[in-house]
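Quick one - first record:
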Amino acid sequence: MLGFAGCGAALYPELYNSNGYFVLDGDLFLIDCGETTFRQHYMAGNFDHVKSITVFITHMHTDHIGSLGTLIVYCYLKLGIRTRVIYPEPEKLETVFRLTGVEPEHYELYDDYAVCKDRRVGAVPIQVKHHDVMVNSFGYIFSVEKKVFYYSGDAAELPENVKEKFFRGEIDELYQDTSVEDHGGAHFTLQKLEEAIPLRYRSRVYCMHYDGEFFEIIRSKGFQTIEDRVVKTRE
């Protein structure tokens, strides 16, 4: 099951950053690593006894990469692990790492997860529209053992090819950025999601990246919520 370090949008910090994760046989896979994500996983003990860490990046807003450098340095110095980072445009992350003191020996950076040859996991990036000044944003279609799911990242759209694969049963679950407001056209609204997904498919659609606590409204429309999947900390 896909877990979350938080379920909120950048401007709704009460719910922490909406970054997903899953674990396979002691290997930790993160989807984004926003400002609050490292702390959430640390306080939950999710780094205890971990064998490897891989981070898939959807885009470079700080609620998606804000604690990535801290995670990488912690894993290298405290755990002896070089974090694998996946992003289709790795040179942009190299610039961020260089400016923030994250050394090349601390991490492995790839533009394609396929080169890692971990056959338990597949990850195909899908370019999505998010914000006019954030043109390089990606969702991912993940294959994790026998389950296939789409993770939108921040997206103002649900790509037609993803939707059609979902309707045909080729994608088991959708995790979609869903907001009440459209925030200048940067996010997919609940109204747009209702228009895109017929009622009979909605039980397999999980809304995330909330700009408020409108969980009951989401469920009343037949969609699923993720607030109960947020990691439990040791506080």
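second record:
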Amino acid sequence: MYLLGYDIGSSSVKAALIEVETGKCVASHFAPDTEAPIKALKPGWAEQDPTSWWDYVKECTADIITKTRINTADIKAIGISYQMHGLVAIDSKLSPLRDAIIWCDSRGVPYGEKAFHDIGTEKCLSHLLNSPGNFTAAKLRWLKENEPQIFDRIHKVMLPGDYIAFRMTGEISTNTEGLSEYMLWDFSTDSVATFIMDYFGIPSSILPDIKPTFSDQGHLTRQAADELGLSHGIPVTYRAGDQPNNALSLNVFEPGEIASTAGTSGVVYGINNNTAYDPKSRVNNFAHVNHKASDPRIGVMTCINGTGILNSWIKRNIVDSGTTYEDMNIMASKAPVGAGGISVLPFGNGAERILCNRQIHSSFHGIGFNTNTRSHLLRAAQEGIVFSFMYGIEIMKEIGLDISKIHAGNANMFLSPIFRDTLASVSGATIELFDTDGAIGAARGAGIGAGIYRDHKEAFASLNRIKTIAPAADRIPYLEAYALWKDRLANELYTH
């Protein structure tokens, strides 16, 4: 038996096929070969054609079937992970009315900020656990105000994963986790946040049906099965946004467990067992995949926009052409902890939530022309990224998260020994690296949703841990470098 998982990203779509008994990934594929296009019709806008995601799903599926030559009737369930906070609007003929407004589009910001002010911070935070922010509901309000001729034709709205599930099954649904991404889930009443709906002027009729995250969410139609080259009737049994799904992929389900990623942006995502929130709304809170009102599981997330993008900027502008990231890590290792007094604030990729949505840009501090070298700069950049993670972790600790272990995939910045060692040593947490990804996680989630696995413990029994990184025996140099970094950040915030 097999399980099929899809990860619908903004850069690419990835599919993975895993064998139920062993948990082994037997084939995977991503599409397109180059980064998927994002349309930016105006500064701060970001859109994609949702039908292109379906085309990439078909390409990935075809490649996997060709590689494995399995009997597709042996695929017992499908799981879907997807880029969060996107907005797909379809008409009564079930066709998209416009391109999807995706997660990195910022046009909803002023609408979310105004709602936060008008409704009141206490009500928003106590009910939504967040400010309305730049999430899907605020983007939908932008659509109502700026493209009313389209808004008036909306039959249903969907998140990106909802749209792919709809293309597979013909059914239009979402889940509690998805509605919390919209900022449309009221945790105090365990229901749709009607006060936000009313404020933004969103009719309840356009919301999808609500189904459990792990459940039968429809079956492949004959048309979808023919397009995908799969067997008719395979159930879709799991769906979640990419960050909750990444946590699931790393077997992070219970309070105190932490998942982290460090690609272009970086995320620390921890599980809380209560609905505590940050009064300044510097971190995000979403219903985790196993959340229940009677037994809360809240995903507390800090996102740093300027993560791997800083490292790639260094690669393009500081080191010689042809230098690899591995070469950069070797060069950086020649500098001591603390990078000879240099601190880098990695905030050059837009406004940062942990800084109360302020945009202070990136800056380099403490460079000595007679003492520092390129190695110091390279190390300082990686340390600066880690310190921004730690700044977010401290906020998470303020609302009750106990962080002693961090789970991460063996990819991106976590391939760097300096990055890993610095994060473990400044946080005091042990880091465990695993061989997994979002598509594999979605496939395992499908196994839970279909009842093939009894629970997540059985589903992740075969998860392969690659490496464990413990904090340094002497953490003082790391903590001193972080304290200096925080002082310089405070000064920068004061001057902005």
